[in-house]
Specification:
The complex is a heterodimer of chains A (about 725) and B (about 55). Chain A is built from 24 helices and 5 strands. Chain A is globular. In chain A, the strands form 2 sheets. A 3-stranded antiparallel sheet of chain A has the order 1-2-5. In chain A, strands 3-4 form a two-stranded antiparallel ribbon. The longest helix of chain A has about 40 residues, at about 495-540. Chain A is mostly helical and about 725 residues long. Chain A is about 65% helix and about 5% strand. In chain A, helix 17 packs across helix 21 (about 650-660) and helix 19 packs across helix 24 (about 700-710). Chain A has 2 domains: about 15-480, Cytochrome c oxidase-like, subunit I domain (Cytochrome C Oxidase, Chain A); about 545-710, Orthogonal Bundle (Cytochrome Bc1 Complex, Chain D, domain 2). Chain B has helices spanning about 5-25, 35-40, 50-55. Chain B is mostly helical and about 55 residues long. The N and C termini of chain B lie far apart (about 65 Å). Chain B is built from 3 helices and no strands. Chain B has one domain. The chains are: A mainly alpha (about 725), B mainly alpha (about 55). The interface between A and B is large, with 61 and 38 residues.
Chain lengths: ~725, ~55
């Protein structure tokens, strides 16, 4: 509220454009990083030696960096740029506080930098799209709430009565992401950069995918829909096709999305009824999603000629088209029988990239081409280059998704193919890997083409900005007749008409948040106590990990093994024939965090224990392709050199004990010596077979863990 | 699976929260006019000067 003059009833005020500029530039920067890391890991799959044996850039460590950069850095900054631009204009009010805006911007960028500085070092919670360790999680919560306060208070201070549908999408984004993030990130720290998830096994899986799916829903869908409902009408200068439909679209999505999470766990050990709930709600989501897609596209009616000439309209229209394709594909994949074929395969990778590159990427690009000339008070440097970007990026996406669809369906079919005798047609997993390698090359090329298009955009935007007038204001003036005269907190805090009117809205939102937090607190003790009861009951068949196994498990989490290997044998013929009896809930009951995984670039490991001798693992981790011909697993030579941290095991066990894992006090006390004993015996066994290894090396701990998988009582606690 | 006892109420609460918000918004007259907001968005807020100059 820096500039405000009264001119009769007409109020003059200004919008903060500086913050939009910042978020726009940050979007461009992080997009480049996200795309580049994506290409590196795509190439690593086609050519595993690419990482040069460096642990910091293995697929398992870079993949979380890629997903976090794409979702939270690229899409996140794009959302914020769009929200800060459109909210001010839709609400006819400057953002509530410039200081909070600045805090939000710099806080968010610091979080991204922190992610880039921790993930390559293996500092991870091991939960997809929620890998960041607990100090960063806290920072995210703080910055997110700052953003929410800024947004909600701007809504309170608005000068128009009606809240445009886009704003509703933004509100839902803030509330839901806040709750999901806090619930899913609940963890108990072991050290400054290591923590264990508060939930275990199936509970952790349900919380994770409740979060995971709604991260897609409320981070990559609702905010972008809000942007769509603002920028498509603006770009074609036509009102949205049906405003009524957009309102219905919003409310239906909000009520349905929150239930769809279990579709990520179909055919697993999760009880069937929960799977069915997830499936039914996912299929229902198809209807409002397509309502929204049609609404977005039909907004261009009467201006279809712009689709030929205006690159902005091209980007936005194709974006809405990809939204339609993804939201048809999503419900389809959420049907159990379709999911049986598609789950764990590259089909899912194709699905998310159609969404991320097509829907999110193109919407962000269209929005930026719209914003930059307006923010910098100039014209776009070259419309032709923007058109080139559009076509190059479109070809990139097509190469990407087509190769991944082909690869995914190939994998799905090969994994479950049986011969006349009922035996697997491709018993060696690596056979199914070798088959899709050419497609991995095509995918990498697709990514490079997409990046090439983006570089054209970077050049175009750079030229646009550098040719813009040198002296220019970071404010946009506007004026309107406010629907209620005095804004909240305008100098003296008078309880005007407006304060009272605006209050219930804030109250309702705060109540929802408060109830959420309250129920969390009240349910927490019950969760802990019931998990203890379950533990005692199942203790006879399933022992907690020995300290050495736990150390090995932490290495497994650190290296991001879950990005390529599942630990969940589904109740499907193909899975059971290939990997053994279907996984049960009990088998992962002490897993903080669960490591069921979502992808099989390599085979499932739920029952890998005892399948191979220790020496096999020892040699395999050093050079996988020497042991398994055609393997694309990278080498893990540093595990044979780096030392296991035995000293921290006592602390780790005590945290696990606190979380309900039934370790005795004496188990915790002797954790270190116990682990050393077990390590010595494994190392002795390896040495007897001719391996040159000391007992304090990480490979020993990892072998202890891998041999435990599927052998719930192996070396267990007494 | 005990987490279900948290997740289901939590999801319900989110749903109920939005329901309250929806009813409240309706009560406050947010959905009375579902025609003009779509048009009002298009009213330009900037470039006013430039546009006038161009004409």
């Amino acid at each position: 509220m820096t500039r405000m003059e009264q001119k009769g009833n007409l109020e003059r005020f200004s919008y903060d454009d500086a913050i939009v500029k910042k978020f726009t530039l940050a979007t461009l920067l992080w997009a480049a990083v996200a795309f580049l890391v994506g290409i590196i890991i795509a190439l690593e799959m086609a050519y595993p030696a690419l990482n040069g044996g460096l642990k910091w850039i293995t697929f398992g460590r870079l993949r979380p960096l890629h997903t976090n950069a794409a979702i939270f850095a690229f899409a996140g900054n794009a959302i914020f740029a769009g929200i800060y631009y459109s909210s001010q204009r839709l609400l006819k009010a400057r953002m509530f506080s410039d200081k909070i805006s600045q805090f939000h911007f710099w806080g968010w960028q610091s979080i991204i930098v922190a992610a880039a500085l921790t993930l390559p070092f293996g500092l991870t919670q091991g939960k997809e799209y929620a890998e960041l360790e607990w100090p960063i999680d806290i920072a995210i919560a703080v910055v997110w709430v700052a953003f929410g306060v800024n947004l909600l208070m701007t809504i309170v201070n608005r000068r128009v009565k009606h809240i445009y549908v886009a704003i509703w999408f933004y509100i839902a984004t803030f509330i839901t992401v806040a709750i999901l993030h806090v619930v899913n990130s609940a963890a108990v720290p072991v050290s400054a950069f290591k923590s264990y998830s508060a939930y275990a096994g199936v509970s952790d899986a349900l919380v994770q995918w409740w979060y995971g799916h709604n991260a897609v829903a409320f981070f990559l869908t609702t905010p972008f829909l809000g942007l769509m409902y603002y920028f498509i009408p603006k770009a074609v200068n036509r009102p949205v096709y049906s405003y009524r439909l957009s309102v219905i679209h919003f409310w239906t999505l909000v009520f349905l999305y929150i239930w769809a999470g279990p579709h990520h766990l179909l055919n697993t050990a999760v009880p069937d009824w929960a799977q069915t709930v997830g499936m039914v709600f996912s299929v229902m989501l198809w209807i409002p999603s397509w309502g929204g897609m049609i609404n977005g596209l039909m907004t261009i009616r009467g201006a279809w000629d712009k689709l030929r000439t205006e690159p902005i309209v091209k980007f936005l229209a194709l974006s809405a088209t990809f939204y339609g394709m993804s939201t048809f594909e999503g419900p389809m994949l959420a049907i159990k029988s379709v999911n049986e074929l598609g789950h764990y395969t590259d089909w899912i990778i194709a699905h998310v990239h159609a969404g991320a590159l097509g829907w999110n990427g193109f919407l962000a690009f269209g929005m930026i081409y719209y914003l930059v000339p307006r923010l910098w008070r100039t014209e776009l440097y070259s419309k032709r280059l923007a058109n080139i970007h559009f076509w190059v990026a479109t070809i990139g996406i097509l190469l990407y998704v087509m190769s991944m669809y082909t690869s995914g369906i190939t994998q799905g079919l090969m994994w479950r193919e049986v011969d006349a005798a009922g035996k697997l047609a491709y018993p060696d997993f690596v056979q199914t890997v070798s088959r899709v390698i050419p497609l991995y090359w095509i995918r990498a090329v697709g990514g490079m083409v997409y990046l090439a298009g983006f570089l054209v955009m970077l050049f175009n935007i750079f030229k646009t900005i550098s040719l813009a007038p040198q002296v220019q204001s970071d404010e946009t003036e506007d004026e309107c007749v406010p629907y209620i005269r005095k804004p909240l907190f305008s100098g003296e805090l008078s309880f005007s008409h407006r304060v009272l009117e605006a209050r219930p809205m804030v109250l309702a939102v705060l109540t929802a948040v408060a109830i959420g937090i309250g129920s969390l607190i009240s349910f927490a003790p019950m969760l802990l106590s019931s998990s203890v009861v379950e533990s005692n009951y199942h203790d006879a068949i399933n022992k907690p990990y020995t300290p050495l196994q736990l150390a090995g498990r932490d290495i497994y989490v650190r290296e991001g093994c879950y990005t390529c290997h599942s630990q969940m044998i589904r109740k499907t013929v193909g899975d059971v024939l290939r990997f053994g009896p279907a996984s049960t809930i009990e088998e992962s009951m002490y897993d903080h965090p669960f490591q069921w995984g979502s992808k099989r670039i390599g085979p499932d490991l739920a029952r890998v224990g005892s399948k191979y001798p220790d020496l096999w693992h020892f040699r395999h981790m050093r050079n996988p392709s020497q042991v398994v011909n055609g393997s694309i697993m990278p080498t893990y030579g540093w595990l044979h050199q780096d030392r296991t941290d035995f000293a921290i095991l006592k602390k780790k066990l005590s945290v696990m004990k606190m979380l309900g894992v039934p370790y005795g006090d004496e188990d915790v006390e002797r954790a270190e010596s116990w682990a050393k004993e077990e390590a010595a015996s494994i190392a002795a066994g390896l040495r007897a077979e001719g391996a040159d290894v000391k007992e304090d090396r990480e490979i020993i701990a990892l072998i202890a863990y891998l041999q435990r998988l599927g052998n719930p009582t192996r070396g267990g606690v007494k | 699976m005990s987490i279900i006892w948290f997740l289901v109420p939590a999801a319900l609460l989110i749903g109920v929260g939005f329901l309250v918000l929806f009813i409240f918004a309706g009560y406050r007259g947010q959905f009375e006019d579902l025609e003009t907001p779509a048009v009002r968005v298009l009213l330009e807020d900037q470039f006013k000067d430039e546009k006038e100059n161009r004409k």
